[in-house]
Structures are given as structure tokens and as C-alpha cells.
Amino acid sequence: MKTYVATKNLGKLAEMRAIFASSPLELETYSAYADVVEDGLDYTANARLKARALRVQLLAAGIAGAVLADDSGLEVTALGGRPGVLSARYAGADATWAVRRGRLLEELAVGAPADRSARFVCALVLLTADGIESDARGEVSGTIVDRLRGESGFGYDPLFVARGDTRTFAELTDPEKNAVSHRGRAAAALLASIAAPRA
């Protein structure tokens, strides 16, 4: 099933293609995708906004196909769950990922909180070509380290160590990360949902 992904984040797109490689979804991009204002109250709401916006754009261009959208974020216990749904806009909408990571470390350095626990959360929304909508959520718990480690991944990956591991997401191979990540878990849940018979 040809499926257009509502993202301009090339790192996220590559990761999603790897995660869905053996699924029925054939992920494509739409070069003219126009970002939507992500003002939803949670990850699923934002993913739904993006999926529906891309669907409208595709229909206006006369393109048929399914749409897949993701919204994800990092929730840090010591920061009261921030940056959360604002993870991609932390430190300002135009901030680079290096600036966002730096801000996170600076905030955690204030008072040096003992609790550096955190979790990554991902919501996926799939809209089929005939308008059927499905959604799923995945999360992974872990801790935030005190300095950047690793060269792989993107976003906050160099700062996050999943529970039960000693390496950051940026120190894992792509298959290792995808097997345990919030996005990998959300994808598994979504595929199970769409494979289940509908009432």
C-alpha cells in the first residue's frame, strides 16, 4: 500500500522506512508537503493533524494513497515531563537540535537532580486511501546522560539510554534501536491493529 509520510525530517523518514520495511506499507514522500501548526494537546492529536493535512494536500494534487504521520517527544521526569509535545520546538521553533540538546542539559544541570529518568513517546496515525483512520502509541523508558554520546540517530538520541542498556540510542545500530524504540513499538502496535479483523 503506497503510503505518504507527513514529515520533512529526513532522519525520521529513514528510520520509519527501516521500521516498516517488511510491512505492507510502502513509504513515500510528498515533496510539496506543507507543515501544519502542531497545536494538539497530545501526540496523537498532533499526528492526526499532520495526517489529515497531508491527505488534503494529496487529494488537491490528484494523488491517491494512504498517509502516515508521527508525533513524538521526550518526557523528562525532573523537568515535569518537558519538553513533551514541544520536543521539536524546545528552545524555540527555529532552534537547531544541537541547541535543543544543550538547553535540556543546561536545565538538568540546575540543582543537579538525582532523578534523570525519562521516556520517549511516539504516536502514529494512518489514514488509508479510503479514509479509514487507525492510531497507535509506543513508549520506552530510560535515563538522560550528562553528555552527548554516539554519532547515530537524530534528535535527543545522543542523550537517552533505554532501561536495561548502557548505550545511548545514538550508540546503537539502527536495527538495535528500532527493535526497542518508541517508534518501533508504535509501528508494531499499528500494524497489529490494521491486521486485526474489523467488527
Topology (elements, then pairings):
Blueprint: E1 2-5, H1 10-19, E2 26-28, H2 43-60, E3 66-76, H3 97-109, E4 117-127, E5 133-144, E6 160-162, H4 174-180, H5 182-195
Parallel strand pairs: 1-2, 1-3
Antiparallel strand pairs: 3-4, 4-5, 5-6
Helix pairs in contact: 4-5
Name its key features.
single chain, 199 residues, alpha/beta, Maf protein, 5 helices
The largest sheet, given as strand count, sense and whether it forms a barrel, is: 6 strands, mixed
H/E element order: EHEHEHEEEHH
Low-confidence stretches: none
> Taking all residues together, what is the mean pLDDT?
92
Counting DSSP E segments of at least 2 residues, the number of strands comes to: 6
Percent helix, as a range, is: 25-40%
Q: Return the CATH topology.
A: Maf protein
First-to-last CA distance: 22 Å
Query: What CATH architecture label applies?
Result: Alpha-Beta Complex
The level 1 CATH classification is Alpha Beta
Strand order of the largest sheet: 2-1-3-4-5-6
* Total number of domains: 1
Short description:
The protein is of the alpha/beta class and 199 residues long.
